Model the fold of this input.
Amino acid sequence: MEGRRMQRVPGAVMEVSAESTAALLRELVAHLRENRTQLREEWVRRIAESKLLAAMTREEIFAEATSVYDNYVAVLESGSVEALQAYARDLSERIIPRGVETHEVVGIVLLLRDVLARSLFKKYQSDFGLLNRVLDAYEPAANRIANTVAVSFVQERERIIRQQQEAIRELSTPVLQVRERLLILPIIGVIDPQRARQVTEQLLRGIRANRAKVVVIDITGVPAVDSTVANHLVQTVDASRLMGATVIVTGLSSEIAQTLVTIGVDLSKMKTVGDLQGGIEEAERLLGYKVMMEQTADKLP
Amino acid sequence: MRVPILKQGGYLIASIQSALSDQDLLQLRDDLAERAGRFRSRGIIIDVTVLDIMDSFACRTLRSIAYILRLRGAETAIVGIQPEVAFAMVQLGLALGEVQTALDLEEGLALLNQRTQLGNAGEK
Amino acid sequence: MVTLVKSEVRVPINSGADILTARLAGRQLASDVGFNNSDLTVIATAISEVARNIVQYARKGEIILGVVQDGNKRGLRVEARDDGPGIPNIELAMQDGYSTGGGLGLGLPGTRRLMDELQVDSKMGRGTTVVATKWIR
Done:
C-alpha cells in the first residue's frame, strides 16, 4: 500500500541518532496533543469534504475521529502497534456492518497523516534542518500506522465474510428432524469439497444435538454423483457410525451404485434404498416404530 | 492421569477425564483387563466425550482393549466420540473396526444390554 | 508468495509425552489464527500423527509451528523434523494402506487429507522433514 510521498525540503543531511529521533517524536507527540482539538476538527472537516464515511452521521464520525486521533498519537508515542491493532479490529467490527469500505478507512487514515504532517510543517518551517529531522521521525511511524489500520480492517472484513458464508451454507442444507432419533438430510445441488465438508460437519453436530440413531441422506437432488461425491458420502457414513448412528442413503440409483463399485468405491457399509419415502420407512423399522399405513386418496393419473 | 473405572453391576464404565498420553492409554488397557477379569464383567463402556482428538495410536489401543476384553468374555462399547473428532478420524482413515460405538453413556448401556442380553442395566 | 507472520513455536519431541505438548501448542496457535473448532481438531490430529512418527521412527526430533500468509489467506504451517533413518520409499509411504510399523504406517496420506498441503523431504540415514500447511477457508 503506497502512501503519497511527502514533499521533502532540501537541506543539509545530518547524522541522526536513535535518541534524538526518540526525543523528536516526543516533541511532536506533545505538539499533536496540545493542538488536538483544532487538528481533529480540521481532519473531520476534510473527511466531510472528501465525502468519505458517507454511511455515518457527523456525530458518529466525530466520535470515532476522536478515538482514532488519540490512538494515532499514542502509537507515535509508544511505537507499539498492538493496541492500535486491537482498536482497529474493534472499529472495523463496528463499521463494517454499516457498509464502510476499505478505501474509506485507508482514505481517512491518510488524511489524518497529512493533516498532522502539515501541522508539523507549519511549526518547524523556519528551520529546514529540524523540519527534515522531524519528518524523518514522523514519516515511517505514520506509514506504519496507516498500514496497520488497513490490514486490520481487511482481515476483519474477511473474517466477517467467512462467517456470513458459513451461515448461508448452513441455511441452504438444513438437517431436518422429523421424528425422534431420526434425521433427514436432503442434499440438493452440486457438492464441491468445501460444501461437502460443511454438510458433514453440520450433520454430525445434528446427530449429537438430536441424539439421532438413524440418518437418512437423500441425494436424489444431486445432479452428478461421481467418485468424489461417493467418497464424501462414505466418509459421512463412517463418521456418523462412529457417533452411533446408522445411515441410509436414498436416491442412489442401482446403475450409479454399480458404476461406483466398479470404480472401487466401497459402498458395502452403506444401506441404500431407492427413494426417500422408502428410506424413511426403513429408518422407522430400524427404530422400532410401527409403520402406519395411511389410506391414500386415489392418485390422479 | 489414571482413568477412573466404575463398576455398575455387570458392567465397567471408564470415564476419560482429560487428554490422555500414550502411557495413560496403555495403563487404561491394563486396568480394564485386570478389573474385567476380577469382576467377570460382561460389558465395558469407555467414555471418550472429553478426548480432543483420536489419533492412530488411540485407535489401535482402543481396538486392542476391545480385543483383550472380548477374550475375557466382555463386550466393549466406545461412547461419546465428538463430531469434530469423528470427522477428523474418517479423514485420517481411522476405523474402529468391529468395536461398537454409541452416542453417549445411555446409548452405550442400551447397546450393551442388547448384546449381552442381561436386561436391566447389567444387574446380575 | 508464502511468508511467515510471526516467530515460530518450536516443540522438541523426545518422547511420547511431547506429542501431547505439540498438539496443544498447535491447537492454541491455530485458534489464534482464527480456525474454527472442526479445523482445530483436524490440525491437532495431524500434528499428533507427524509427532508420533518422529517418536516411533527417529526417537527424537522437533515440531515447528508457524503462522503463514499468502496474499490474503492466512494459515498454519506444521513442520516435523528429525535426524532419523529416513524414509526409504516416499512414494510408497504416500500410498494408502502402506505400513511397516504394524499399524497405519506413517499416516502420510491421511495427514495429507487432513491438511491442505503436504511435502516430504527425506534422505536415507540423514533424516526427514514433513511440512504440512492448512489455510483458513
